[in-house]
Amino acid sequence: MTSEPGSPTCPTQLTDPTLHFRTPRNPAEERVFAMSFTSTRRGARLARRLAAVRLDDWGIPYGTEAHDAILLIVAELAANAVRHGHVPGRDFHLCLHVAPRLGTARIEVTDTRGERVPPRPGAVNDGRDPYVTLGGWGLLLVGGLAARWDWHFRSDGPGKTVWAEYALRGGR
Questions:
Q1: In Å, how far are 1, 15, 107, 128 from 33, measured between CA atoms?
Q2: Which stretches within the chain are classed as H helix?
Q3: Which of 11, 130, 12 has its CA nearest to residue 138?
Q4: What is the pLDDT of residues 110-139, one digit of tens each?
Q5: DSSP readout, the chain?
Q6: CA 32, CA 3: separation in Å to the nearest integer?
Q7: Whole-angstrom distance, CA of residue 79 vs CA of residue 110
Q8: What tens digit of pLDDT does each residue of 38-81 get?
Q9: DSSP label at residue 127
């Protein structure tokens, strides 16, 4: 083993350790954040916080209407995955996709419980649906903020994916 600085066997340090976490600054570039979280309240909170950081990094800053609306959708869908889609020992998955050219942000939350499904858009009724009465107004809020939303069964395993699309003002 050699201690020569240019040697491939020499230990090296990154000059900028956070470089691999940064997103390219091309504002028209599509961006995707996808991650699995424990199906717990803590997991839902972490999903929301990481989505907030991602959105800010992608040019949708904290405190803007778009940032707050997208985060509320993430929070509600993640909370529903934990509350209604929890299967012990299984995680839920969040995918956040921002497409500035299309002027949309798409939020997808997938859980592994397929026998308990939300109502379809337009069929969410206060006082009649467990997704509304157990925790409050989650899907009514999602329906009010999102340009469109729906759900489908997973094709690659048990469970379902609930998704919502938020229209970014002015195509970003």
A1: 40, 25, 10, 34
A2: 41-57, 65-84, 130-133, 138-145
A3: 130
A4: 999 999 898 888 877 655 555 554 455 788
A5: ----TT-TTS----SSTTGGGPPP--TTS-EEEEEEEESSHHHHHHHHHHHHHHHHHTT--TTSHHHHHHHHHHHHHHHHHHHHS--TT-EEEEEEEEETTTTEEEEEEEES--SS-PPPTT---TTT-HHHHTTSSHHHHHHHHSSEEEEEE-SSSSSEEEEEEEEPGGG-
A6: 40
A7: 12
A8: 999 999 999 999 999 999 999 999 999 999 999 999 999 999 99
A9: T
- Structure tokens of 104? 């949309």
Copy the structure tokens of residue 169.
Answer: 């003002």
At position 47, the amino acid (one-letter code) is A
